[in-house]
Amino acid sequence: MQAYYDADADLTVLQERTVGIIGYGNQGRAQALNLRDSGVRVIIGCLRDESARQAEADQFSVLSIPQAVERADVLALLIPDEVQRQVYQETIARRLRPGQTLDFAHGYNIHFRLIVPPPEVDVIMVAPRMIGTMVRESYLAGGGAPAFVAVAQDASGKALATALALARGIGATRAGALLTTFAQETELDLFQEQGLWPLLIRTMLMAYEVLTDRGFPPEMVALEMYGSGEGAEIFREMARQGFFRQMRLHSQTSQYGTLSRAQQIPFLAQMRSFMERALSSVRDGSFVEEWRKEQAEGYPRFRELRAQAQAHPLNRAEEAMWQLVKQRPA
Question: Helices in 192-311 by DSSP H: which ranges?
Fold first, then answer.
């Protein structure tokens, strides 16, 4: 897999161009600040809401989205996937001009052809693999968040150079910008959300239920499972040292217990089948249609699922846990 670093990315590609950040939320703010600190001319296009006030407080030129589209040479669409299509169709599409670049932080709408840009514009993706706050914090610390970069449409012949310049501007090439496709980034991201995290979440809830049913105090279980932050540290060390190598930070009792019991799980075949179905529903477009239908109907199932999650006893347990511990992990 091709990886690009600072030496491979030329920031002067953006020297005479204006980058319009559409949306000033978690990711939009981080990328805008990093780009400006890297010497790139940045304007913000967003609604007149709290995000606009934050952008003004950060001393950006804040315009309406139509104004930003007309003034910018590169447009980074950093608004939520579910509203991108509507904003694009109603506000952006008719204002695009030849030579502009559309940049996405996720391939969803392009890959599934919910947005189909005209052939005379470049379509690229710079997708940091961290949430916006970490994109900013890692940049300020002298590092960067690794990112995926891709080109879906290269009208100018310079689309990849623009993508790499943006990646360098936000700090991604300090860590590594990996060349991929819109399809691979989208399908991998959705699979994580639908094939991996559901199993982790359901397993943790089941563990909570088993332990509290057997008499363990709920707040003690919540603290042990995740409330102390130990689990987050384990994942962090996986990234730093390796998936299995981080286990050496734990006792041999811990290592043996985990490795030996992992081989005793009786339903691994069913888990793999679940993951295969999740990947298939992403690739064949059935999830996209399901989600579009859910949006069109006003999110009834989504609201029901969130209400069920908020009603789980674990929520009360963690509130009690925080009262006892007094301080949440940083």
Answer: 197-213, 218-222, 230-241, 252-262, 268-283, 286-296, 300-311
Which two tokens mark 78? 């950093």
pLDDT one-digit tens code per residue, 152-194: 999 999 999 999 999 999 999 999 999 999 999 999 999 999 9
Q: Are residues 161 and 255 in the same domain?
A: no
Beta bridge partners of 124: 103, 151
| Active-site annotation, residues | 106
For residue 49, the one-letter residue type is D
> Which stretches does DSSP call E strand in 80-121?
101-104
Are residues 202 and 171 located together in one domain of the fold? no
CB atoms < 10 A from the CB of 210, how many? 11
330 occurs within a structural domain? no
Q: Which of 77, 115, 76, 120 is nearest to 96 (CA)?
A: 120
